[in-house]
Amino acid sequence: MNDSGGSPLARKRVLVVCMFDSPHTARYLSQFEDQDLDFLLFPSSPHRRIHPDLERLLSSSRSAGFQLAPFARYYGLPLWLLDKFANNFFRGSLLKISISNFQPSIVHALELQNAGYLSLKALSAGKPKGLRLMVTNWGSDIFWFQRFPKHKAKLQKLLELADIYSAECERDILLARNLGFSGVTMPVIPNAGGFSDAVLDLPRQETGARKTIALKGYHGWVGRAKVALNAVGELAPELSGYQIVVYSANRSVLKLAKQIASRTGLEITAHGKGALSHQKMLEVFAQSKIYVGLSESDGISTSMLEAMAMGAIPVQTSTACCDAWFKDSGVAVREITVQAVKTAIQQGLVLSEDPDNAKTNRKTIELKANAEDVQKIALTFYN
């Protein structure tokens, strides 16, 4: 842990249960780098690596101290596999030991189904005196999982135990209350932090010069990239001359993209998960007419916000709280079918022809998601 001088008792200790390989974790924690706080980080998922931005925080010489729980670099995947059959017994026990040794004033679970359930296991016998549990809803944590009885029961127990709750959608505040949360709710902000001036000042192509369509490539338990790709394929005559950039694609999405490109002659470039850096993704959005993101469930889509900041018109499923971010300057997809998505893409392309729509979205990001204002709110979380 970094030594910032002064009595360690004067510094608040926060134990964060989080995904070590997530850029969102690193971006959230980086907001506290200049604060007199000591963080102990405990893994919530089967990480195979620690995100480079998190590694940077661990060696930072600024005010906040960041350290990993003992041996946490090594037991993420093995113990996660064991706990699949042991109901979080092993990692729950280790987390309980870490809480006892570190003696934090706050345990913060960054996400519910991994970090939250793990915290519930560690604190099931009761919280130590003076300890508060904070839980942050990420993405689909309640909106999607409350429909499954086993998850709903766990969510109710977790939310009844929690003292503080944060989310990036007002929708999820109401859902938490409905499931029994009675503590303090924090202001709604993007979980991954806001946009810095350096990002907002990146060069962006003029509306008329853009000939790219960005498409989020997640397809799985909630992602629906294949529907978007099939819609693109059926729109091939209209999209001739466009470059379709698919990013963060699953293996099956990479295969489908190749097939559609071969069948239609469209220029489709597909990149697997993690293949494009954050900087490169921003550059793609800065050249795109529209961004297409489909999911059965989500919180705020960080990609959607990045696209809006870079001037791409969002075509986003309404499950992602997008109604709070745009009205007439983007397209909310309310039915995930090829026909509905075809229509949404066509509508998005029409909206992209009017520069005022991109300007409206840009202003929204500057007002609601600039880094300075978001950080000011985040810094109140541990007070």
Give me the secondary-structure topology.
Blueprint (H helix, E strand, L loop, with lengths): L11 E7 L4 H8 L6 E7 L8 H7 L6 E4 L7 H11 L2 H14 L3 E5 L1 H11 L9 E5 L12 H13 L2 E3 L3 H9 L5 E2 L11 H4 L11 E5 L8 H10 L1 H4 L3 E7 L1 H14 L2 E6 L5 H8 L2 E6 L8 H9 L2 E5 L13 E3 L4 H15 L2 H14 L2 H8 L5
Largest sheet: 7 strands, parallel
**Helical residue percent?**
40-55%
Q: Categorize the overall geometry.
A: globular
| Helix count from the secondary structure assignment | 16
Which radius of gyration do the C-alpha atoms yield? 21 Å
> End-to-end span in angstroms?
21 Å
Can you write the helix and strand succession as a string?
A: EHEHEHHEHEHEHEHEHHEHEHEHEEHHH
Poorly predicted runs of 5 or more residues: 1-8
Strand content: 15-25%
Q: How many beta-strand segments?
A: 13
Strand arrangement, major sheet: 3-2-1-4-5-6-7
- State the secondary-structure class: alpha/beta
Look at the structure and give the mean pLDDT: 94
Summarize the structure.
The chain is α/β, with parallel strands linked by helices.
Descriptive notes:
By secondary structure, the chain is α/β, with parallel strands linked by helices. It has 16 helices and 13 strands. The chain has helices spanning 23-30, 52-58, 76-86, 89-102, 112-122, 149-161, 170-178, 197-200, 225-234, 236-239, 251-264, 278-285, 302-310, 338-352, 355-368, 371-378; strands at 12-18, 37-43, 65-68, 106-110, 132-136, 164-166, 184-185, 212-216, 243-249, 267-272, 288-293, 313-317, 331-333. The strands form two sheets. It has a seven-stranded parallel beta sheet, covered by helices on one side. The longest helix is centred in the last third of the chain and has 15 residues, at 338-352. The two termini are 21 Å apart. Mean pLDDT is 94; it is low at 1-8.
